[in-house]
C-alpha cells in the first residue's frame, strides 16, 4: 500500500498580503507621523494648568525638607518610606495596598463620570508629550513648518534644528531621570555624587533607563503608547455607559457637513453646522476624527472642542458642535441640567461612597496609628538556664521600630510570674525614624511556679508619653 505524500506549505517571513483584482497589497500599514496643530482655548489652558501642577509637584517634592530630612523619600536601602511626617516600614504594607485600592477606585469613579480625564490631563505620557511638542514647536515651528522640514533633504539647517530639538529633549529627560532617582536616594547627596562622578551602578542604570523611556515615549512613540501599549485604552469601554460624559460630535446638528461661505445660511444650502474644515483632526494628538464616533484612541484631551468652538465663533454659529456630553444627551437632545442629573447616577454614587469611606479610613488610621513597633523573639539557643543566685533566666531579643519624628525613651518591664524582673538595664532610647535591637533577660525564682512553659507579658512604655505603649506576650520556661 503506497502512502500518499503530504503536501507541505512553506512559511515565508514576509508581510502578509492579499490578492485583490489580480494584484497583491500589504495588510500592514507603516506608521505615519502625526503633526498635531497647536490650539488655544479653555481646555488647552486646563491641560497646561495640569502640566504645571504635576511637574512642580514631581520636580519640587524631592527638594522639600521636613524635620531636617527629605520630605518624600522611599529609602529602599533602609527599608522605610518618609512621607512628610509619616514614616512607613515594611510592616506598613497595608497602607500601600490601601493607597493602590483608592487610586484604582478613583480611576473608576472619574472614568464613569467623565471618561478619560486622567489620560487627557494628568497621565505622564500626555504631560511629557505636551512638553516635548511645545519644545518642538519652539524650535521647528508649527505643524506646517514641521511637515516641510521633515520632507526636505538633509542639510545644515535641518541638521541644526533637529540637533537642537533632541539636545533639549535629552537634557529634559536626564533631569527627569535624576529627579526620579531622587525619590529613592537623598537628592542633595545624589547631586553631589553626580558632580563627583561617584554614582553607584544601580543609580546610573535606573537614571539612564528612566531618561531613555521619557525621551523615547514622549519624543517618538507618543500616541502609539496610548493606542497600542496602554491597557486602560482597552478596558475603558467597560466603564462607559450612555450617561458618561465624553468628547462627542453632535451629528444631528453637524450633518450633512460641507464647506460654505461665511455669511451663507446653512439651512438654505441643506447643510449642517460642520463646515468640514478637518481642524478637529489636525489638532488631535492621536490622529482620529471625532466625527466618526467614539473611538478607543480618544484620550479625552478636548483639543477638538477648543478648535471647533473657535471655528463656530468665526462662522457665527453656536458653540458645542463638539463638546463634552453623554450619548444619551446627544440621542435625546437633553439640556445641560438634565444631562448632569443623570451623570450622578447610582453607580457613580456607590463609587463615591466607597472611595470616601476608604480614604477616610486610611487617613484616620495613619493619624491614630501607634508609631512604636515591637518584634519580640525568644532566644532559641538557650531556652532557660540557672544563674548564680539559683534563679531561672530566659533570654529574649527585642527589635524596636520608631515611626515617629521624635526620639523615644522606652521603659521595659515584665509581669505574669511572681518575682519576675529584668536583669540589667530596662531603659532604652530609640532615635527618631529609626530602629534598635536589644537583648533582655528575665529572671524569677525556680519555685515561682510549676515547671513548664508560662505566659508572660513584656510591657514597653515611652517615659515622655505614657499613653504610647506596647504589650507583647511570650513564654517563660521553668525547667524541671
Name the descriptors.
480 residues, alpha+beta, Immunoglobulin-like, five-stranded antiparallel β-sheet, four-stranded antiparallel β-sheet
What does this structure look like?
The protein is of the alpha+beta class. The protein has two domains: 33-369, no CATH class; 372-478, Immunoglobulins (Immunoglobulin-like), CATH 2.60.40.10. Helix content is 41%, strand content 20%. The protein is built from 16 helices and 18 strands. It has helices at 42-60, 93-114, 117-122, 124-140, 143-151, 156-181, 187-195, 201-221, 223-229, 232-235, 251-254, 279-282, 303-315, 327-332, 336-343, 346-368, and strands at 17-20, 23-26, 65-66, 69-70, 72-75, 80-83, 86-88, 246-249, 322-325, 372-378, 385-386, 392-402, 408-415, 421-423, 427-430, 435-444, 452-462, 469-478. The strands form six sheets. Strands 10, 11, 12, 14 and 16 form a five-stranded antiparallel sheet that branches. Strands 15-13-17-18 form a four-stranded antiparallel sheet, with no helix packed on it. A three-stranded antiparallel sheet has the order 5-6-7, with no helix packed on it. Strand 17 (452-462) and strand 18 form a beta hairpin. Helix 1 crosses helix 4 (124-140) and helix 2 packs antiparallel against helix 16. The chain is elongated, with a radius of gyration of 33 Å. It starts with 16 loop residues before the first strand and ends with a strand.
Amino acid at each position: 500500500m503506497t502512502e500518499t505524500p503530504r503536501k507541505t506549505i512553506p512559511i515565508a517571513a514576509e508581510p502578509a498580503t492579499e490578492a485583490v483584482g489580480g494584484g497583491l497589497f500589504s495588510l500592514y500599514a507603516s506608521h505615519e507621523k502625526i503633526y498635531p496643530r497647536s490650539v488655544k482655548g479653555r481646555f488647552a489652558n486646563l491641560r497646561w494648568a495640569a502640566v504645571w501642577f504635576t511637574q512642580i509637584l514631581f520636580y519640587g517634592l524631592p527638594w522639600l525638607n521636613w524635620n531636617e530630612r527629605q520630605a518624600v523619600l522611599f529609602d529602599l536601602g533602609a527599608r522605610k518610606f518618609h512621607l512628610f511626617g509619616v514614616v512607613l516600614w515594611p510592616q506598613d504594607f497595608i497602607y500601600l495596598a490601601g493607597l493602590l485600592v483608592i487610586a484604582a477606585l478613583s480611576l473608576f469613579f472619574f472614568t464613569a463620570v467623565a471618561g478619560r480625564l486622567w489620560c487627557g490631563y494628568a497621565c505622564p505620557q500626555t504631560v511629557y508629550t505636551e512638553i516635548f511638542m511645545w519644545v518642538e514647536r519652539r524650535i521647528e515651528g508649527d505643524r506646517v513648518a514641521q511637515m516641510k522640514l521633515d520632507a526636505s533633504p538633509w542639510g545644515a539647517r535641518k541638521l541644526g534644528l533637529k540637533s537642537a530639538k533632541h539636545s533639549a529633549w535629552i537634557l529634559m529627560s536626564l533631569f527627569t531621570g535624576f529627579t526620579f532617582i531622587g525619590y529613592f536616594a537623598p537628592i542633595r547627596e545624589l547631586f553631589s555624587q553626580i558632580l563627583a562622578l561617584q554614582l553607584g551602578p544601580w543609580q546610573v542604570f535606573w537614571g539612564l533607563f528612566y531618561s531613555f523611556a521619557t525621551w523615547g515615549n514622549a519624543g517618538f512613540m507618543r500616541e502609539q503608547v496610548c493606542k497600542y501599549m496602554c491597557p486602560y485604552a482597552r478596558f475603558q469601554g467597560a466603564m462607559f455607559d450612555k450617561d458618561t460624559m465624553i468628547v462627542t460630535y453632535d451629528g444631528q446638528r453637524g450633518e450633512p457637513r460641507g464647506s460654505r461661505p461665511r455669511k451663507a445660511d446653512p439651512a438654505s444650502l441643506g447643510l449642517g453646522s460642520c463646515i468640514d474644515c478637518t481642524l478637529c483632526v489636525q489638532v488631535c494628538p492621536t490622529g482620529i476624527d471625532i466625527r466618526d464616533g467614539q473611538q478607543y484612541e480618544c484620550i479625552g484631551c478636548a483639543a477638538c472642542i477648543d478648535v471647533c468652538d473657535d471655528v463656530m465663533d468665526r462662522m457665527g454659529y453656536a458653540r458645542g458642535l463638539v463638546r463634552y456630553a453623554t450619548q444619551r444627551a446627544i440621542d435625546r437632545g437633553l439640556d445641560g441640567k438634565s444631562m448632569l442629573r443623570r451623570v450622578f447616577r447610582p453607580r457613580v454614587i456607590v463609587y463615591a461612597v466607597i472611595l470616601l469611606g476608604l480614604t477616610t479610613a486610611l487617613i484616620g488610621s495613619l493619624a491614630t496609628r501607634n508609631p512604636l513597633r515591637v518584634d519580640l523573639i525568644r532566644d532559641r539557643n538557650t531556652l532557660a538556664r540557672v544563674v548564680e543566685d539559683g534563679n531561672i533566666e530566659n533570654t529574649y531579643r527585642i527589635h524596636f521600630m520608631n515611626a515617629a519624628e521624635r526620639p523615644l525613651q522606652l521603659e521595659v518591664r515584665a509581669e505574669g510570674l511572681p518575682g519576675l524582673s529584668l536583669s540589667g538595664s530596662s531603659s532604652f532610647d530609640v532615635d527618631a525614624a529609626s530602629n534598635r535591637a536589644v537583648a533582655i533577660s528575665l529572671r524569677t525564682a525556680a519555685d515561682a511556679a510549676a515547671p513548664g512553659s508560662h505566659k508572660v507579658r513584656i510591657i514597653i512604655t515611652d517615659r515622655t508619653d505614657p499613653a504610647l505603649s506596647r504589650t507583647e506576650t511570650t513564654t517563660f520556661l521553668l525547667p524541671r
